[in-house]
Amino acid sequence: MISENYQRQLMKEAKQLDVLLGQEQTAEYEKLIVEITDQKIDVAILELIKNLGVLTKKKTISNIERKQEKIIEILYKYLGSVKVNQLYQDLKDSANVSLADLVKQLDELVGLENVKQQVQDLIDYNQIQQMREKNGLKKSNKTLHMAFIGNPGTAKTTVARIVGRMYKAIGLLSKGHFIEASRTDLIAEYQGQTAVKVKRLINRAKGGVLFIDEAYSITENDQSDSYGKESLTELTKALEDYRDDLVVIVAGYPNLMEQFFQSNPGLKSRFNTFITFNDYSLEELVKIFNYICQKNDYVAEKHAIEKVHHFLEAKLSEENDHFSNGRYVRNLFDEITMNQSKRLSKSTEPISKESLMLITKEDVPNLLKAQQ
């Protein structure tokens, strides 16, 4: 949580910068600071840094430059140089990633063969439509919005991020940035304020992807939820108004998503693409575990992998509707590395680099744990 002191400092400088730029009414920098203090840290700061960079290129007057420097200084104090520098690097990397690199990122994801094929089909389709337009031919008016249907932990968010960057790479989106939203981001506390809140969110998402996970939560109180209805009405309007430079991806459980689409006349027709994210198989879950180990500089010995296999097999046999797929594997990995740390801390021998990397069967929880 950002401290009140930093919050006040950032807000003060942002307001003054808005005044200097003659944008008191729209208050663009003040809005970004609000988003930062509302915990949308990375996305809002990336947008802030990007905007400050644009100002610098315009050779702004000294007062504005001083305000820019002050805001960056406060960010460094709050987040630390490592975090801010990483955000700068993320911004640089996202601008330079090629379509081929993004296709490779998608292909490296475990499983999801039908998802990968549908995404590739969309890329092919939109590239051909762009070629038609360049040759003076009519192009399809097909909307870019999508629905991702599937259980938790099936990489819906990861794929949504990649899709946005792919669309940026082929020129469909002007920015390709990613904004994730939930019910709290789309519904205000007071009557009449919800539409304003949705508009602000849409304005931030323009040029990129707005990802709404568990979209049905917008109307979770069914017919009595006037706030949810107001939010959905404004969102449905935006789907049409900004269809040329905005991708809205709604996601969630299959049955509940169908209820969501039935909650507003015409809502489903705004979405042309429906992609199903199937649950992972046992073999795929084990591959995900190995992938997480590799990405985090761990190596699991053969007997440890076998034990993980049995552990996950027992978990899958429960037929639990709330099993979280890849997310569960990530949590299991965290528990295993915690157990490894406990084991190593008791060692009386010097701890080598190889020991720090190695996961043994002792580190993997027993089967009884999977059945709890």
What does the model show?
It is a single chain. The chain is α/β, with parallel strands linked by helices. The protein folds into three domains: 4-95, no CATH class; 97-277, Rossmann fold; 282-370, Helicase, Ruva Protein, domain 3, CATH 1.10.8. The chain is 60% helix and 8% strand. It contains 17 helices and seven strands. It has helices at 4-20, 28-37, 41-57, 62-79, 81-96, 99-108, 113-134, 156-169, 183-186, 194-205, 226-241, 254-262, 282-295, 302-317, 325-345, 353-357, 367-370, and strands spanning 146-150, 178-181, 209-213, 247-252, 273-277, 299-300, 358-359. The strands form two sheets. It has a five-stranded parallel β-sheet with strand order 2-3-4-1-5. Strands 6-7 form a two-stranded parallel ribbon. It is globular. Residues 38-44 and 54-62 have low confidence and may be disordered.
Topology of helices and strands:
Elements: H1 4-20, H2 28-37, H3 41-57, H4 62-79, H5 81-96, H6 99-108, H7 113-134, E1 146-150, H8 156-169, E2 178-181, H9 183-186, H10 194-205, E3 209-213, H11 226-241, E4 247-252, H12 254-262, E5 273-277, H13 282-295, E6 299-300, H14 302-317, H15 325-345, H16 353-357, E7 358-359, H17 367-370
Parallel strand pairs: 1-4, 1-5, 2-3, 3-4, 6-7
Encode the helix/strand succession as letters: HHHHHHHEHEHHEHEHEHEHHHEH
Q: Largest sheet at a glance?
A: 5 strands, parallel
Average pLDDT: 79
Number of strands: 7
Strand percentage: 5-15%
Could you say how many structural domains there are in total? 3
Which value, in Å, is the CA radius of gyration? 24 Å
Any low-confidence stretches, pLDDT <50, length ≥5?
38-44, 54-62
Count of individual helical segments: 17
First and last CA, distance = 33 Å
Q: What is the C-level CATH assignment of the largest domain?
A: Alpha Beta
Helix content: 55-70%
Q: Specify the structural class.
A: alpha/beta
CATH topology of the largest domain: Rossmann fold
CATH-derived architecture of the largest domain: 3-Layer(aba) Sandwich
**Can you identify the CATH superfamily of the largest domain?**
P-loop containing nucleotide triphosphate hydrolases
Quaternary organisation of the protein chains:
single chain
Overall 3D form? globular
Major sheet: arrangement of strands: 2-3-4-1-5
